[in-house]
Amino acid sequence: MTDTTEAAATPKDRVLIFDTTLRDGEQSPGASMNLDEKLRIALLLAEMGVDIIEAGFPIASEGDFEAVRAIADTVKGPTICGLARASKGDIDRAWRALEGAEKPRIHTFISTSPLHMKHKLQMEPEQVLEKIAESVAHARGYTDDVQWSPEDGTRTEHEFLVRAVTIAVEAGATTINIPDTVGYTAPRESADIIRMLKERVPGIDDVVISTHCHNDLGMAVSNALAAVEAGARQVECTINGLGERAGNAALEEIVMALRVRGDIMPFETRVDTTKIMAASRLVSAVTGFPVQFNKAVVGKNAFAHESGIHQDGMLKHAGTYEIMRPEDVGLTKSNLVLGKHSGRHAFRDKLRELGYELGDNAFMDAFERFKALADRKKEVFDDDLRALVDDATTSQSNDRIQVKFLRVISGTEAPQSADLILEIDGEERRHTAKGDGPVDAAFNAIKALVPHEASLKLYQVHAVTDGTDAQATVSVRLEEGGKIVTGQAADTDTIVASTRAYVNALNKLLVRREKSAPSCSVSAAE
Ligand code: KIV
Ligand code: ZN
């Protein structure tokens, strides 16, 4: 559970944690986040002690640019990094977004595998090498912290990889990141590539070698750790392993593996592991991506001991079946907390204990919701409060569409119906719709009041706690013209939570539409 005396006495090499939840994580279809959400995550990552935050890809969209700029201007402590392809336009845009940062980093990349150069870039290898020298030198014109990545690095021929990395180092890159873009490598190969570069690239010892692993074959964390053992000193990862396809190496798994197995992997990070659960919950709440129950470190069952033999062992000595303590990752027991007579003081203290620091308006809003919840629900647990606060911060009082009233008729006799009042841009509108069940009826009423072409991609309900009076957290994912948004809401009434989650997604869609067409208005039905 802890380091042995001998291992603890050995000085440990520092491994930098580069979090790319807001860039590579956000590239996961449906995981898009708005500026406020990105800022909240970045602030929590900074509090956790992450070394570098990759805040986005500024050229990708106006929203990405604004988010990187807001994080660069606001978040102090970690290095703030922005991604750029190997073009001057990308790099200039990245710098505009990053220039306010205390410690800015430009991360530029280009593909180097034969497959990518031929089919994706349609460039000759020599042209790619020229681009590397040009792009890294251009980025160095702005900052002396430049990271370079050969995309599809692990499928790049070794001779060419050595030439490419050598050119990047000569041009001034200070971090060389080797991506396993398609999650194809395996631990031994991942380590061999790092060792090979350390042996063959002149000047490599003066730069930080980084590893960036995708999880297509479920080996991202193992591949990243193998790279560290071979000499990488930066690991790129995401909270909950979020990321394209099967995701990226999970930050919490990397950090806890290095901590728990410091005896055989003598490396340390500066991450405050007690913030891990808060980060996991926040990312899950914001993206609507649930954490799988048996996910290592942060899954609901990661510390649950069901079998009699295990429970007996745990009672005698926790170390029998537990290699890390729940409190090390910030997991507190779901205690019975407050009742309907609890005051503001107790409520604020409890929120602080759970890691929430709310502004005055958000606090008052959350407090009112808590009172309403305590009236309806006999017992209010920590998880209820988390759902309540996440819900309060997901839906905003300035949202253009607000749910004002809902009454549904459900039961064995069809058709089920929903009578709904929405406030749309300050004006109340009412509609009653039928449907195949109460949720369908409520969604039909929303569609009648706010006509739209978005299609429903995901509808998901989770019980926050046990019991029939448990709150339900509902996620709704909508897609319109390639734009994907996820809305969330929590309520003890599943139909109310579903309606508010749908409306939350629509509000996000409106914000995204406005960004691409500034004059757009909500088209409410007459
Ligand atoms: O997976 C990848 O290749 C990337 C690069 C942009 C670093 O995310
Ligand atoms: Zn990636």
Q: Can you give a write-up of this model?
A:
The chain is globular. It contains 18 helices and 16 strands. The strands form 4 sheets. The chain has an 8-stranded parallel barrel, surrounded by 8 helices. The protein starts with a helix and ends in a 10-residue tail after the last helix. It has helices at 5-9, 21-25, 35-48, 62-74, 88-98, 114-121, 125-140, 158-171, 187-200, 220-230, 251-260, 276-287, 308-316, 344-353, 360-376, 382-394, 438-449, 494-516; strands at 13-14, 16-19, 52-56, 79-85, 104-111, 146-151, 175-180, 208-213, 234-237, 267-268, 401-409, 416-424, 427-435, 455-463, 472-480, 483-491. With 526 residues, it is of the alpha/beta class. Bound molecules: 3-methyl-2-oxobutanoic acid and zinc ion. Residues 24, 109, 149, 151, 179, 181, 212, 214 line the site of 3-methyl-2-oxobutanoic acid.
